[in-house]
Amino acid sequence: AAIQKELLNQKKEQELLIFQENIATKER
């Protein structure tokens, strides 16, 4: 279960980074 939680956290972090990049692209 711990490994699954780690993967989930990594996925959330990646989605957050992509989300931030999308906002940065829109603001340009």
Topology:
Layout: H1 2-27
Account of the protein in words:
The protein has one domain. The chain is mainly α and 28 residues long. It is built from one helix and no strands.
Can you tell me the number of structural domains? 1
**Residue share in helix:** over 70%
Question: Would you tell me the overall average pLDDT?
Answer: 94
Give the ordered list of helices and strands: H
Percent in strands: under 5%
Rg for CA atoms: 12 Å
Largest sheet: none
- Secondary-structure-based class equals mainly alpha
Query: How many beta strands in the DSSP annotation?
Result: 0
What is the terminal separation in angstroms? 41 Å
Helical stretch tally: 1
Tell me the overall shape: rod-shaped
Uncertain segments are none
